[in-house]
Amino acid sequence: MKRYYLTDRRALGGLGPLRQVIARALAAGVDMIQIREKDLEARTLWEFTKEIRALPNPHGTKLLINERVDVAQAAGLDGVHLPSRSIPAGELRRIVPIGFLIGVSAHSLEELDAEADFAVVSPVFESKSKPGYGPALGVQGLAAMAKQSPIPVYALGGITEQNAPACVSAGAVGVAGISLFQETFGVDFL
User: Fold this and answer.
1) Domain for residue 190, yes or no?
2) What is the CATH number of the domain that holds 64?
3) d(C-alpha 155, C-alpha 148), whole Å
4) Are residues 89 and 69 in contact, defined by beta-carbon separation less than 8 angstroms?
5) Could you give the count of Cα atoms lying within 13 Å of 136 in the half-sphere of its Cβ?
6) pTM, entire model
7) If you count Cβ atoms within 10 Å of the first and of the last residue's Cβ in the chain, which end, N or C, has fewer?
8) pLDDT, tens digit (0-9, with 9 covering 90-100), for 76-129
9) Could you list the residue range(s) of the whole structural domain that residue 28 is in?
10) Omega of the bond prior to 123 within 30 degrees of 0, cis?
11) Which residues of 62-86 are buried (b: 16+ CB within 10 A; e: fewer)?
């Protein structure tokens, strides 16, 4: 099961604690980390991502950033995650280097972008971080999207250690989350 950690410095109390959690996630071998600090100024975000890039990464965890292609490239990150109403992945692909990862958010079949490398499907379960994106899809909704998706999908929204296996059984390649990872690092997970 692949693991995709989305960051939230506010829930942790700032960039210092976030840096510590990211270091533990890198040491634990999480597959991808999305620096999802959307409201940081470009320079602060770039400086922070450079610090993260310099941390030991013994398992080759892929580092992405939320939507800021410029910051991702300037900091030497592996890719970017695009919100559902962002520029299409195919347009972005024309200007980024080969191998640059592009992930997309998808809350419906119509939002799946075949030119992306992967999609994060949400909300699978009720989640306090995903209000306003419609009702939870449930495992059946996730299964329907995974089956019809031309790209691998990750399950997001209300994912717990207990329901993660059901998401993978439904066709997701892995699970994504904020609190799922921020609350469990320091403990062997999945």
Assistant:
1) no
2) 3.20.20.70
3) 14
4) no
5) 14
6) 0.93
7) N
8) 999 999 998 899 999 999 999 999 999 999 999 999 999 999 999 999 998 766
9) 2-182
10) yes
11) bbbbbbbbebbbebebbbbbbebeb
